[in-house]
Design goal:
Layout (H helix, E strand, L loop, with lengths): L1 H16 L4 H8 L4 E2 L5 E8 L5 E7 L7 E9 L4 E10 H7 E3 L2 E2 L3 E2 L2 E7 L7 E2 L1
Parallel strand pairs: 6-9, 7-10
Antiparallel strand pairs: 1-2, 2-3, 4-5, 4-9, 8-9
The protein binds 2-acetamido-2-deoxy-beta-D-glucopyranose.
Length: 128
């Protein structure tokens, strides 16, 4: 038990050292984001490869100015999937753009649709 508590406090310390923001803390609590061995939040997303197939990949938070988070995105038009992958941005930007669990576009820009979401492989399905 004591050993477990020591491990736990070490993990908490590492997380605070990387400036995990409010959104990431919330997503970790909800199981939509996990933490790697260095205390960096990460998720998994479907990523479109150059040969046109999609595959699951690990997506870490990429450091930047202010609290950063990570989600998944998809970009498509009527004909095809254009891009799909990791979406690491400032938390404030993720709050505005990403839904939890489902990748559902908020608005259509001309004929291209974009969605962003939180949750493992949540961008495997995307809807207008
Ligand atoms: C696409 O590329 C990936 C990675 O190189 C490979 O594993 C996969 O088999 C390829 N799929 C097709 C349909 O070529």
């Amino acid at each position: 038990m004591a050993r477990f508590l020591i491990l736990l406090s070490t993990a908490v310390h590492l997380v605070s050292a990387t400036l995990v923001g409010e959104l990431s803390k919330e997503l970790i609590k909800e199981g939509l984001v996990s933490i790697d061995e260095n205390g960096i939040p990460k998720t998994s997303c479907m990523v479109l490869l150059s040969n046109g197939t999609s595959t699951p990949q690990e997506c870490p938070v990429i450091p930047g100015f202010g609290p950063q988070g990570v989600g998944c995105f998809a970009l498509w038009n009527a004909d095809r999937l254009i891009e799909q992958g990791c979406f690491s941005r400032q938390e404030i930007s993720l709050r505005n753009q990403c839904k939890k669990k489902t990748c559902h576009s908020r608005r259509k820009q001309k004929d291209v649709s974009f969605c962003c979401c939180h949750g493992p492989l949540c961008n495997g399905k995307f809807t207008q």
